[in-house]
Write a structure and sequence with these properties.
- This protein has 8 helices and 12 strands.
- The chain has 288 residues and is α+β, with helices and mostly antiparallel strands.
- It folds into 2 domains: 121 residues, CBS-domain (Roll); 135 residues, Hotdog Thioesterase (Thiol Ester Dehydrase, Chain A, Roll).
- It has a 6-stranded antiparallel β-sheet.
- The two termini are 36 Å apart.
């Protein structure tokens, strides 16, 4: 078993700092010009008093603030949370989650050692063990009909027939997205780093496309009998943002014989817009 990865092995050591009286225009140009995710705000003694990120700059723009006259102190995040270099990555991730932040300062006896971001942790925590050396696990209820959040509707306890329709709705929470990233290793910052994603065309974190496809799979799993996936085709037509509830609509379109069926699969968001359009082929067997 690999030992837990400490913050010192995960942090970004190139720390950018600025005083609270700096103009927002200069800091913004530096933030994006240097391709860094944050700038630490320090006082005259070098003590951290805040942090400014792409999210803070986006909020300033939304408030229509004048970047040429506004000072950093007016828009910086004053919540500065620190961890020690030896802090295990999983513990740092929990600290980040508890405080609702995406950046931690790593501080040693000499001062700021680096910055630890949600993206840094996303790459490492899936491989990290917890503090007692054991990999954490999640218990899943094997009841197909109830996962605590999903809602299923459709014919039950009868063979499939052409024209049968089923729906399954599920909220794709930030936690679900993070767990999916940890399970698969798909740590694209579009899914995990709010500051990064907010600066893109999507304007915020989005769910993995395959996670959205999983909502179709969850609906198929609740079909009568023992469904076995044989084929899935999917086209992604719109993003699903973290926290959105999506609904998979599944219709039996053809009986291909020998227990095989062709399904039309469409996923829509809360506004009714199609986010996934495709089809699937399944084999339905008798449950053991």
């Amino acid at each position: 078993m690999s030992p837990p990865l400490p913050a010192r092995e995960l942090l970004s050591s190139d720390v950018e700092t600025v005083g609270p009286m700096a103009l927002l225009r200069a800091v913004t140009e530096h933030l994006y010009g240097a391709d860094v995710g944050s700038v630490v705000v320090t006082d005259a003694e070098g003590v951290p008093v805040g942090i400014i990120t792409g999210r803070d700059i986006g909020r300033a723009a939304a408030r229509d603030l004048d970047f040429d006259t506004t000072r950093v102190r007016a828009v910086m995040s004053e919540t500065v949370v620190t961890v020690a270099p030896e802090t295990p990555g999983r513990q740092a991730a929990e600290t980040m989650h508890e405080h609702g932040i995406r950046h931690l300062l790593v501080v040693d006896d000499d001062g700021i050692a680096g910055v630890l971001t949600a993206t840094d942790l996303a790459y490492a925590v899936p491989r990290a063990a917890d503090t007692d050396g054991a990999v954490q696990s999640v218990e899943i209820d094997a009841d197909r009909d109830d996962d605590g959040d999903g809602t299923f509707d459709g014919p039950a306890d009868s063979p499939l027939s052409v024209g049968d329709e089923f729906t399954f709705a599920k909220t794709l929470t930030e936690t679900a997205i993070e767990q999916f990233a940890a399970a698969t290793g798909d740590t694209n910052p579009l899914h995990l780093d709010a500051d990064y994603a907010e600066a893109t065309r999507f304007g915020g974190r989005i769910a993995h496309g395959v996670l959205t496809t999983g909502v179709v799979s969850a609906g198929v799993a609740r079909l009568p009998g023992m469904p076995i996936y044989l084929e899935q085709n999917a086209g992604f037509t719109a993003p699903v943002h973290a926290g959105e509830r999506v609904t998979a609509d599944i219709e039996v379109t053809a009986d291909e014989g020998d227990g095989q069926y062709r399904l039309a699969t469409v996923v829509t968001d809360e506004s009714g817009d199609v986010v996934l359009d495709g089809d699937a082929r399944v084999l339905i067997k008798t449950e053991p």
